[in-house]
Amino acid sequence: MNAVVAAVLIMLILSALRVNVTIALIVGAFAGGIIGGLGVEETINVFSSGLGDNATVALSYATLGGFALALTKTGLPDAVVDGTLRIIGNSNDTKKKAFSKVLVVLLILVISCFSQNVIPVHIAFIPILIPALLKVFNELQLDRRLIACVMTFGLITPYMFIPAGFGKIYHDILAKTVTAGGLKVNVEDIPAAMAIPALGMIVGLLIAIFVSYRKPREYDTIEYVETNEKAQYSKRSLITAVVAVLAALTVQLLTLDTEGAMIFGAITGIIILLISGAMNFKEADELLTNGMRMMAFIGFVIISAAGFAAVMTKTGDVESLVAYAADLIGNNQSLGALLMLIVGLLVTMGIGSSFSTLPIIAAIFVPLCVQLGFSPLATLAIIGTAGALGDAGSPASDSTLGPTSGLNVDGQHNHIWETVIPTFIHYNIPLIIFGWIAAMVL
Predict the structure, then answer these.
(1) Please, are residues 217 and 142 in contact by the beta-carbon 8 Å criterion?
(2) How far apart are CA 161 and CA 159, in angstroms?
(3) Where in the cell is it found (predicted)?
(4) Which of 144, 159, 185, 442 could form a disulfide bond with 377, CB atoms 3.0-4.6 angstroms apart?
């Protein structure tokens, strides 16, 4: 059996059985290494050496967690909750409650989409905004699986379709890898090629909102900050909090091309809170430690995913999986489009990054698409969709780990069953269907 397929399946099965995701990644990587012929010692060495690849991202989560918890001392989260609850008003007013649900879901959707282009901070907004809104979700009896689907949609669809922010990066990589594979394409054509697959994402979102998770769901209101006292806020403290948040975002934007953008953005915000006196020096260490602890699970998963990806790459079975699919396809255009999409799904779910998947699959998929007679637009749609597939539904993807980091601060949202599986069902299945349609009609 192909090592990548085996490793991904083992990782997913263990995760679905509620085995800790970090353990599932380690076991899956070890099994994949053995099946791929690396041997025990080399598998362990490759896995260990690959762990550092995601260390920056893991530290980003930790510092953002500290900054998010530090903001609670300014009273900003409580002010957000109080303001939103005033809009909600009497929870017994059915019409007003329905309107409030729409308002909250729409707000999160817009912010999630804007985090990829207008203010390209990616997942950095989640640990700051979402924990503060959990009380509001509880008041409205919103199903957190719906919120996870909304955020994941906003983290993926814009970069697929809109050539700005992270979308520009994705489109540039797609155009570059397809051209390197032997097919000259224009980056300006990518939005047209990805329009139908993006429509599949919209269909998945609408199903999640209006069908799957429309029913009320009750949660206990649990304080995620270890204190029984509600933070007191004033005009000065709120201004300080807003300045800290804006400063953090500004630093991230100015250092967007560097790996440590989120780290230094969060540190900037923390320093402003300390200098302003919004956070007391004596309690800063404990508060920041608790915030980092809140994000520890996400950090360990991200670090483990880097080791998993290193082992999969070392086996060489990623390339052999792509080559095997090419051999199996023959001259069947319809089957070819479907298998290329499925291979993209498997590779991305294992690696956890759609951006890293494109160069791996394009080298073989581009000549295959040309051989099967696909147009340049259809080729862009197939490879662009194959890269994005698995970003939703992967236990190790930012697009699932981010939502979980915000929704599970009170321990009532399971990463696998309430983020990974819902996003897999609502986005990967429509993406395969609509990606295949795009390949056939473009």
Answers:
(1) yes
(2) 6
(3) Cell membrane
(4) 442
Q: What is the CA radius of gyration of the chain?
A: 22
Q: For 182, what's the count of Cα atoms within 13 Å in the CB-facing half-sphere?
A: 9
Contact 387, 343 (CB under 8 A): no
In a domain, 27, yes or no: no
Picking from 278, 252, 280, the residue whose alpha carbon sits closest to that of residue 265 is 252
Q: How far apart are the first and last CA of the chain?
A: 34
In a domain, 408, yes or no: yes
Domain boundaries, position 316: 53-215+295-441
Please, which contacts does 264-267 make with residues 24 or more away whose CB atoms are closer than 8 Å? 265/121, 265/124, 266/60, 266/63, 266/64, 266/66, 266/67, 266/124, 267/63, 267/67
The span from the CA of 298 to the CA of 294, in Å, is 9
3 state SS of 32: helix
Tell whether the model's pLDDT for residue 63 goes beyond 70: yes
Rounded Cα distance between 262 and 274, Å, is 19
Instruction: Please report whether residue 87 resides in a domain.
Output: yes
Mean pLDDT of the residues in the chain: 81
Per-residue pLDDT tens for 201-213? 999 999 999 998 9
Mean pLDDT of 289-296: 75
Can you give the pLDDT at residue 437?
94
How many domains in the chain? 1
- Report if residue 136 sits inside a domain: yes
Residue 80: how many CB atoms within 10 A of its CB? 17
What own/partner pairs with CB < 8 Å and gap ≥ 24 does 253-257 have? 253/119, 253/120, 253/121, 256/120
Lowest mean per-residue pLDDT among 25-34, 152-161, 284-293 = 284-293
What is the pTM assigned to this prediction?
Answer: 0.74
Is residue 199 over pLDDT 90? yes
DSSP string, 328-367: HHTT-HHHHHHHHHHHHHHHHHHH--HHHHHHHHHHHHHH
Distance of CA 121 to the CA centre of its chain: 12
Tell whether the torsion through CA atoms of 333, 336, 342 and 343 is positive or negative: negative
